Model the fold of this input.
Amino acid sequence: MKSSAPQRSTAWWLATLRRRRERQDDEQLDLSQPIQWSSPREKEAAIAFFNAAFRAEESGLRQAHELAASVHEWDPDLTEVLRLYGDEEGWHRELLTEFLRYIGGEVRPMGRVTRTFYRLYGRARRMETIVLTNLMFETIGSTTYRMALRNVRHPAARQMLGILTRDESFHVPLNVHFLRRVLERRSAIERLRLALLYRLLFVSLVLLPLASRPKAMAFDGISRRDLARGYARMLAGLFEREPDLGLRAPGLVLRVLGIRRSDLDDAELAQTSIEAAERAADRTQVTVSAL
Ligand SMILES: [Fe+2]
Ligand SMILES: [Fe+2]
Done:
């Protein structure tokens, strides 16, 4: 078994999030030039894409602040970390609201699949279920944004995608930290239950491109198979690096998508590592071209 990835303490995450908070207001979207869409379809797809992003921020913000309140009794520093983390999602939500308005869109009611996902997630009560689900959402979010950045050329959209890619990638190892802290307080049976949930979520999220592609592909240019493969690689690779968490991706799904476990250790996967989070501690040090 591989050795675990490096870890950082709650104090390190707290100091890092505070540092990021200080620089947050320096960063503004440059929306001075209107986007020249290639077709009305591309514009519609962009509105759908950023609506999905908006819903993810909204959910992340709410869950982080609810978790902050529930860990207060056993770890006040972790409470503060969760609160600052939720605030980053709140900042993303504001940026996305502004960006949607700029592209002539608005926040729309959720579609059927998205609504079902968030409704089920909203019912979760166990802390480990909430943290794992959130971690997996962060992983597919950062993957989608990074893959979209390879195809999207409009400068303002690239700036928006760059901010999201950089910050959601930072949130992945942060959520691994949350998960580890919560699991320290859980029994073997509870950990086993979580391993089963991981497999169920893994399959559901890898199938998600079936629902998202017809809506967003004219904007992000990512095919169904590429996105499903991207999700599977990142969701599997994340936990290959963290063997102590006991979460392993279903081998059958990996085989169907042509992914070998031995391939789950490359530069792309390193984008959501602790080392990448250390670089993102100062947001200004991460450029879009490095994502
Ligand atoms: Fe976010
Ligand atoms: Fe996030």
